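User: Could you walk me through two proteins back to back? I'd like the raw sequence and the structure tokens for each, with a short line separating them so I can tell where one ends and the next begins.

Assistant: Of course. Protein one, sequence then structure:
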Amino acid sequence: MRSCSRLVRNPQHASFAKRGKRLVCNQAVSASAPPLHQSSSSSSAPSDGKTLRRLILLRHADSDQTSGVRDHDRTISETGRRQASQVAQLLKDKGWTPDLVLASNSKRTKQTLDEMCEVIEELGVVDAHYYGSLYTVAALDGQTREHICDCLLEVIDDVRNKVVMCVGHNKGWEEAASQFSGTAVKLKTASAALLQCYSASWKDVLQESAQWQLVEVLVPAV
């Protein structure tokens, strides 16, 4: 596998703290890159000036179950590499090219993104943030949506960011996709829930009361 050398990243763990039962972001590991040009949606913008905002919730690709390797350090399998390439091609074909990435800092999450860079060249220069807390919170009941929103609000820009991709783990990713859309969503490995909503700002659309439209769930053929 050829690593995408331009992918903006830092391997250090982001810190997090618990307040009661809620995880709170303290720091995102990040670096900035020039914003991408994103082609306009075929949907017409509403007359009130609200902007179409898109959210991709992607589960990491299939990973190896190697004995003696801790869960955080598991690597993606050959099947996972093919899955990541396929879902990247599906996103590219649909014009859903991310201009901001938030991800768990697990090894299999980073390798999933490396494989996707081979297909979506622009993905290699987006602003990417890796959170240790996104790895941790996905295992907890019902907290992932709120934590994703908290992390996004730390770094997102209303003007530059129109298509955001969050990459992580079940069970949290299925729960979050279901809560955002108000419908049950199943995410197999390397599957992506495509969500969209018109709003005046990301702050508005990331409120708990906001209802997103589930456009499609992309599932690799392998």
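----
Protein two, same layout:
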Amino acid sequence: MKKELIALLCRKSFRFSETPAFKLVSGRMSRFYVNCKPTTLSPRGMFLTGHLMFAAIQDSGASAVGGLTFGADPIAMATAFASELKGHPVKAFSIRKDQKDHGIVKWVEGDIHHGEKVVVIDDVATTGGSTIKAIERARSEGLEVVRAVVLVDRQEGGVDNIRAHVSDTTAIITRDELVDCWKQMEK
């Protein structure tokens, strides 16, 4: 499954240039561009991502998986769906970028309650800032973050930065794996 997901990401979500050609959120230019949404929102990508993410979290003891909207949302939903298929249901949740100012004011949406063990996920980690923000907001809502998992590690320090907040942090796919796939596809 992982090899197939890497190939799908290469076709739908990854771009590579020998010189820095892609502007990142930080404003910095990069040789690599990763936008997982075309993959995670496709039927096959959702299937593969959900199963691989579930495999990465199933031994965590967590009852729910989620992260900062919008990057984590399709992955969390796919993971919850795969977990039900596997007979070990894990709920999905979403963390807002901006706090609601009406109704019940909270950061986290979903069938989730104070004290639950959760895994915070993200689609891509560069510096890890979005994932760290999600971890902080989950904790502020009384959730116990037991693991963090990113789908793609750009290998620019993000996973290590996240690990400073959640020691059990991992990535499913690395930038190097995507570059290797991209180079094979270019031949």
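Helices lie at 2-12, 37-40, 43-57, 73-85, 129-140, 158-163, 175-186.

Let me know if you want the two compared in more detail.
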